[in-house]
Design goal:
Blueprint (H helix, E strand, L loop, with lengths): L1 H20 L10 H8 L1 H4 L4 E2 L3 E8 L2 E9 L2 E9 L3 H16 L12 E2 L1 E6 L10 E7 L17 E5 L2 E9 L4 H14 L9 E6 L9 E7 L3
Parallel strand pairs: 1-5
Antiparallel strand pairs: 2-3, 3-9, 4-7, 4-8, 6-7, 6-10, 9-11, 10-11
Helix pairs in contact: 1-2
Protein name: Zgc:153411
InterPro entries: Reg_factor_effector_dom_sf, SOUL_heme-bd
Family: Belongs to the HEBP family.
């Protein structure tokens, strides 16, 4: 059984390395265990917890959901801000650090459990045509840890309490790169009926890991108070 686990861990690591190579990202050998734990939900001992929200309204056109308006309660998130040469590199390196935090590199000394989505706070220029290289990757702490968040061993990871928020969300599939994100951003802007939104930052929510071939993603706008 141990040999099978090692073989599976090696295959998963190689799969991630192959996917990351396209973004010029190196996946180190010590990522094999976190990748296997998260992929297998800690050998089936955990389930993936969705970030809770209340649906306020949904706008559709010809059977297509243009966007949803949701309410998210205040909650603790583990966050890390990364500044690499490209958006994809920043997300990959940030997510690997978050994965290590989830997989025992925390003061609880245990596997915390995966929550979805993993979100990245992205900033643009005033015309929304260029993404900033600096992105914040954030992980919603599972319900058992919300009241007493474990401390990260990595000093670059911060535990933040995000306030309650109204979010406008639009779903999309496929790769998340600068071109696709800016396209989806424009689509959400066109679909919205001009609510009071922040124009310089937004959130990309990923429901599948960055190495997945077919990804489920969302663009989020936060309504300003």
């Amino acid at each position: 059984m141990e040999e099978e686990d090692l073989d599976q861990g090696g295959r998963l690591l190689q799969y991630w390395r192959d996917a990351a190579r396209g973004h010029q990202v190196e996946v180190p050998t010590d990522m094999a265990q976190p990748i296997q734990q998260i992929t297998s939900n800690n050998d089936g001992a955990h389930t993936r917890e969705p970030v809770p929200y209340t649906l306020i309204t949904r706008k559709e056109k010809c059977g297509e959901v243009l966007y949803e308006k949701r309410h998210y309660e205040k909650a603790h998130w583990a966050c890390i801000t990364v500044h690499e040469d490209t958006y994809e590199q920043s997300v990959c390196y940030g997510f690997m650090k978050i994965m290590r935090f989830i997989c025992q590199q925390n003061s609880a000394g245990s596997y915390l459990g995966m929550t979805i989505p993993i979100v990245t706070v992205v900033r643009t220029d005033e015309s929304n045509t260029t993404l900033s290289r600096a992105v914040t990757v954030a992980y919603y702490l599972p319900t058992p840890y919300q009241n007493d968040p474990p401390r990260p061993y990595d000093p670059d990871i911060l535990i933040e309490q995000w306030p309650a928020a109204i979010v406008y969300s639009r779903s999309f599939t496929g790769a998340t790169n600068e071109l696709s994100i800016l396209h989806e951003l424009r689509s959400l802007v066109e679909a919205l009926d001009c609510p009071a939104l922040g124009s310089d930052s937004f959130i990309v929510a990923g429901y599948t890991n960055p190495a997945a071939a077919h990804r489920h993603n969302e663009i989020w706008f936060l309504e300003r108070p």
